[in-house]
């Protein structure tokens, strides 16, 4: 029997319990994926805790939107993928049974070809992080070649693809991290400048780094901590795209007036099917044209999903947290 995580009540990481699950068959328009790896995203932890504004699944449920594996069976009316295809799963907003399991039933819209040179662990990190990065940079941030991007929180799951996509689009990237390991990684992704967001005064050099022009686009992972400082760094008509925030803040709107600047939010839950398709196509184009710099993974056995959630909430990010489902 396939194994999977089942949540029977909302709460602390301990509610993630590994169980044997019944074998299932795909219905019309559905695909059965043998999941080899599942991606752990911060949203999974908010949903597990209960009361998450965007998504509140009925209990019991199996968590996880992202994964990678092999198509094991297809239902009627499915022609986009075939048995044996290697795929990555991007199931946020698409009907799916949850990727924290060895077997996944999902709508065919959730599966995408995984190029042969990429591993299942890499593929499991694509869905939410890469779609978010693309959304923030291009669909909301309107990034143009030659601009300067501050990726405020570049060492995590979303930060890695944001840096890579921005550089590929011809931007100059300044990336922040909070540990030496994270800073090394952001440097290895090709960021022109790296800054430690745990060092007091770390943004003081930004005017000099941008030749006095300021930042064109900030992709912000922790807006409640940084939005006021971000706005002060912006160039004329600069933009901040808020990807992550965990609280509120005091803010000086006059900063935006002086720069005719914009603060824009984004949440993947809002993407239309066409926008999601465009974002994932953009990611596929990147993967076809560029050498992926693999995001390092911290890998946990599927049965230890609770530890992955605990550490995601309490430890600094070093790339992506992945569950090994094989
Ligand atoms: N809007 C959306 O649709 C969407 C989609 C995906 C994720 N998110 C949110 O975006 C955030 C990042 O997601 P993720 O998957 O990258 O999480 P993650 O892998 O846990 O990474 C968190 C990132 O935030 C950085 N960080 C910590 N303190 C910071 C500070 N004071 N200033 C700037 N950055 C700081 C971390 O750096 P160090 O660990 O090196 O300090 C790390 O780079 C989360 O809040 C998540 O919920 C939103």
TrEMBL record:
Keyword Transferase tagged: no
InterPro entries reported for this sequence: ADH-like_C (IPR013149), ADH-like_N (IPR013154), ER (IPR020843), GroES-like_sf (IPR011032), NAD(P)-bd_dom_sf (IPR036291), Zinc-ADH_QOR/CCCR (IPR051603)
Chain ranges of the Enoyl reductase (ER) domain: 11-323
EC numbers for this chain: 1.6.5.5
Class of enzymatic activity (EC top level): oxidoreductase
Alphabetized GO MF terms: mRNA 3'-UTR binding; NADPH binding; quinone reductase (NADPH) activity
The organism's place on the tree of life at top rank: Bacteria
A GO term from the CC aspect: cytosol
Alphabetized UniProt keyword annotations: NADP, Oxidoreductase
PANTHER family membership: QUINONE OXIDOREDUCTASE (PTHR44154)
Protein name, entry field: NADPH2:quinone reductase
